[in-house]
Amino acid sequence: MKLFLDTSVLLSACNSQTGASSVLFDLAETNDWELIASPWVVTEVTRNLIKFPPSAELQWKELFFKLMLTKDVVSLNQPVVFSVTKDRPVLISALASADVLLTLDREDFMALLGNDFYGMAILLPSEFLKRERTAGRLKNPTI
């Protein structure tokens, strides 16, 4: 399964090694998940790391190499009603490359959280993990 990680998820994983965002990295290989980000997201992460403790930057260096980078996609041949222009490249790039978009950005993605966007689920990392556990697809569910 291909999981597109929003900036908020990556920053959370950099800042905490125990939260759901970090668990995604721990379980990815075992569960055959591809963790995906785009250059747009990577740029946002590096720009925002200054707001976190120095350990977050060290963690980012490790996590970065576990990501698969996809190209930025900024337009779609289908109608898109999404008023948050700064996150539009995230939404469209995720749709072009992933099965699920994971975000912690409740403000900008509020209307889409828990729903599908042209068949792509948009979830909080914790909700994704619960969904996978409930469906019996989560390998190593003790984490």
Question: What features would you describe in this structure?
Answer:
Helix content is 41%, strand content 13%. The protein is built from 6 helices and 6 strands. The chain has one domain (2-134): 5'-nuclease (Rossmann fold). Strand 5 and strand 6 form a beta hairpin. It starts with a strand and ends in a 9-residue tail after the last helix. Helix 1 (7-15) crosses helix 2 and helix 1 (7-15) packs across helix 4. The protein is α/β, with parallel strands linked by helices and 143 residues long. Mean pLDDT is 86; it is low at 79-84. A 6-stranded mixed beta sheet has the order 3-2-1-4-6-5.
Key terms:
143 residues, alpha/beta, 6 strands, Rossmann fold, 6-stranded mixed beta sheet
Determine the CATH superfamily. 5'-nuclease
Measure the end-to-end span.
19 Å
What do the pLDDT scores average to?
A: 86
> C-alpha Rg, in Å?
14 Å
Q: Which series of helices and strands comes N to C?
A: EHHEHHEHEEEH
Structure summary, number of beta strands:
6
Q: Give the low-confidence spans.
A: 79-84
Number of helices: 6
Largest beta sheet, briefly?
6 strands, mixed
Spell out the blueprint of helices and strands.
Blueprint lengths: L1 E4 L1 H9 L4 H8 L6 E4 L1 H10 L5 H11 L3 E2 L18 H10 L2 E3 L13 E2 L2 E4 L1 H10 L9
Parallel strand pairs: 1-2, 1-4, 2-3, 4-6
Antiparallel strand pairs: 5-6
Helix pairs in contact: 1-2, 1-3, 1-4
Summed up:
41% of the residues lie in helices and 13% in strands. It is α/β, with parallel strands linked by helices and 143 residues long. The chain has one domain (2-134): 5'-nuclease (Rossmann fold), CATH 3.40.50.
